[in-house]
Amino acid sequence: MDLRSANLAAPYRRILDTCEPFLITYPGNHSALDLAPFGLVLRRERLYTATSLTSRNVVDGLHVLDAATFGDQEMLMPRWVLFDCGEFPGIVFGFGRRAEELSPALRSRYRAEDDDSFVPLSMWVAIRCAEEGSWFGHNLSSVNVMATGDDALPGLATLTKAVGVKVARATRQYGATQWTSSSIGLHLRLGDMQLLSAYTPAHTHPETLSYRMNVDEAVLTRSLLDGYRPSRAEGDRRLAADDRDTLLALQSELEAGDAWTLVRAESVAGSAQRLHLVRGSAT
């Protein structure tokens, strides 16, 4: 699919019309990546390497994004973590704008003094797995956590991840997120999530699920198109995101060899979101 000629929903069209894609990785990785994902050519000026001083302002901007998104969740990334896990061996993909195209308030948040400096407005950080074609999504952030008015870009995180998966040439994508996170609904736009764990003490937050998603390009891009409606199908099982006992029981089932796939996240007024699962592995 060529996104520029596709019948995209208006929010995604606006992003492509007003923002530029960028990539941070070690140049030795370029040959393994798709540098024109869905027809969006990554210009040479937007191919950064964290081993160069010229990337410093963009990297600083990534940490502004990270602090705004995860600073209050005990998951803030030290600079060395982003370099060691993403910027060098993996990829950091996103969309951005020149500083002069931002509102004074948002520009101040980024401390972008030069009009021509490039400001990252989103990022998907992914780490290559030893398994062929597999990548682990480490971080997904967008400026919408701190932007208002014309600076806000609805759909930015969804578009960033969808295109980032294509950049990575991933055939399988792994990840981890908290059961209470609103990002689950975003991830499900790109494919069903086969559960690998339901309760994960190795993580800072044990009430974390880890998952595997088989990448299908048609599914990866379906939610970007005009007229898309998320599935409302009922699962074989429903659970509340804050029900620790149920999560522990589900973890025991997974460790015993049962397979469950997360297919829907449902908002519930006045309580934690409800998750819909189907029995079996993701297709």
Shape, principal axes of CA atoms: globular
Radius of gyration: 19 Å
Helix percentage range: 25-40%
What percentage of amino acids are in beta strands? 25-35%
Count of helical stretches? 8
Counting structural domains, the number is 1
Largest sheet: 12 strands, mixed
Structural class: alpha+beta
Provide the succession of SSEs.
HEEHHEHEEEHEHEEHEHEE
Averaged pLDDT? 93
The end-to-end distance, rounded to whole angstroms, is 21 Å
CATH arch. level architecture: 3-Layer(aba) Sandwich
Low-confidence stretches: none
The H-level CATH homologous superfamily, spelled out, is Gcn5-related N-acetyltransferase (GNAT)
The name CATH uses for the topology is Aminopeptidase
The total count of strands amounts to: 12
Report on this model:
With 283 residues, the chain is α+β, with helices and mostly antiparallel strands. The protein has a single domain (10-279), classed as Aminopeptidase (3-Layer(aba) Sandwich), CATH 3.40.630.30. Helices cover 27% and strands 27% of the residues. It has eight helices and twelve strands. A hairpin with a 2-residue loop joins strand 11 (260-268) and strand 12 (271-279). The longest helix has 15 residues, at 56-70. It is globular. The chain starts with 9 loop residues before the first helix and ends with a strand.
Briefly characterize the structure.
This protein has 283 residues and is of the alpha+beta class. The chain has helices at residues 10-18, 56-70, 79-87, 104-110, 156-167, 183-188, 217-222, 244-255, and strands at 20-24, 47-48, 91-98, 118-120, 122-128, 134-142, 172-178, 193-197, 208-214, 237-240, 260-268, 271-279.
